[in-house]
Each structure stands twice: as structure tokens, then as C-alpha cells.
Amino acid sequence: MMMKSGYCARRAGTIFLLVTVLVAGGCGFKTDPVPPASIVPVPIDDLRYNIDDKGVELNWTYPVKTVRGTDLVDISAFDVYRAVVALDEVCDTCPIPFGEPLEVPGGETIEAKKPRTAVYQTSLLRPGHKYFFKVRSRNSWWAASGDSNIVSFVWALPPVAPSGLNAEVADSRVTLNWQPVTSLVDGSAVEGDISYQLFRSDEGKEFEPLGEALATTRFSDSRVSNGRTYFYRVQSLLDYQGHEVTGGVSEAISAAPVDQTPPPPPVGVAAVQTDDGVKIVWEPADEDVAGYRVYRRMAEQRQPELIGEVAAPYSLYVDAQPPATARSYYSITALDQATPPNESDFSREATTR
Q: Does the pTM of the predicted model rise above 0.90?
């Protein structure tokens, strides 16, 4: 009986010691816990998608700030959420049935001194369904951001990419033409209306949509500058049961509009006989003029001949060896800074008195 009492006393002491250790362990923080808000990334607000005949590509910018405004050095991972709804079950007022997320690896938030861009691609798409995507970023399993903006699109058998894209350049204008799209990627005929979305890249920058979708296969781009190189591509769009299905994208082409407008002819041309020859003067033109050409015509000639050139801003030329047997007539043209330069019409002729 005494042995049993001693065993109970020892067991009670052990339990008391364990409870004491656990209670004491609860006070063992050496530093303050990190508040979650100090590492929670701000929500992504630029989730975008690009669709072609192969599938969809999502892209977004790495967040570089926390919700408290402090800098983020890296992101642990991204969670990509997807919802798939059959077209005959789409409900604009119903909650979007997002499934479990797919993890996309993260990394450092800055690359080449700019925020990085994350990319997710998939070709696992079912025709006749509407897809919804959103993304969250996180620094650990418990420090996730809020939802990004939601993007959605309808997937059906897409039309092929437009072919035969070509460009005609002119003064401050690029005119684009391409062949109409009449088939889907499986070779079957298009059933429904096809439209086309043009994209333009200025000097090799990111492609941006150029205006609204077109019902025709021709477009004239007048929002261009001479001497700059532009890149163009065009994508087919199919109207599928009232939903837009994006198709293939053509190969990109380049075009550089050229200045084909000559400057106005010089005015105020005068010719004066001097001991050094005939001095021809005229009024300087505007800043676009790179230089002038000086022409001389004899009384018996129908067309003047070029006798010299003058670089702007000078507006004087000396004909050191004028013909002595007949009166000479002088005219001036202006050259702009285009390559090759555009030449103006002849000025009014001037002759010595």
C-alpha cells in the first residue's frame, strides 16, 4: 500500500514538472514576432492574358511593396486560381467557382532594375467553356496577398492566324493589308463573323492594340512619325455564340514611314553683279531645311543646270564664272533633312541688272 502511494506521488511530480516546462516554454520568445502585415505583398493589379491558337499565357508584375509600403526583396511563390464554366451555365451574378490553386515559383522582385514579370502558360482548355483566372502572391504559407484582378475569356476552336500581312509606307502613313481568314485551326470552315485586331510596337517596344477590332483586312495608320520604325502584327477574332474567341497571330512585319513632302521654294532671290562674279542671295527658310541648290539658266536654255549647293543656314552663293556672252537667270531650291532629301520646286528666277 505504501508502494502504491509512493508511485502516485512520483507520477504527480512528473506531471507537475511537465506542465511547468510547457508553461515556461510559452515565454521563450527572444524577439518580438513579425507582424504579418509587414511581409504581406500588395495585391497584383495588372494580371493580363494573351491567347493564340495554342492556348493562353497569363502574365503579371511582381509586387515590390508590402501592404504597409515597405520594400519586398523576393516572393516565395504565386498561387494561380482557375475556374471553368460551361457556356450554357455561365451566370453573371453567381460566385466564380475557383478551384484549388496551382503554384508558380517566385523569386527576386527586381530584375535589371525593373520589376520582374511572371508568366504562366497552359494549353489545357476545353472548347465551349469560359475560363476565369486570378493570382495571389505570398512570402510564406500564411503571408499571402489579396486577390488580383480577375481575367476571363471563352475558349472555342480558334481561327487560324491571318496571312499575307504587308505594309505600304508613305509620308506620315503606313497602310497595312492581309488575307481574310476563312478556316479554323482544324481546317474546318469558319462559321461566324471574323474580325481582326491589329497590334503595333514602336521602335521594338511591347506590342499594344492599335484601335478597335476591324471587320476589314486593310488599315491605314496615320499616327506615325517619319523616320521611326514600327512593327505590326494582326490577330483573328471569332464571334462564337456572342463571345469573342481569339485566334492565331500573324508574323510581325516592320515599316518605316518616310518624309515625301518637299519644303516650299525659297523666296526673295536676287542676283547682283560684283567684281568676284554674280552674287545670289535669298531669304533663309525654316528649320527643316538642310540646304539649298543653286541653278543657272541661259536665255536660250529651257531647263536650268545645277551649279552649286549651299548648306543651311547660309543663304548666299557666288557664281565666280558666269558666262560673259549672255544674260544668266538664277533660281534656288530647298532641301529638307529627309534621307534622301526632298527638293522643293524652283524659286522665281533672278537675273543681274
A: no
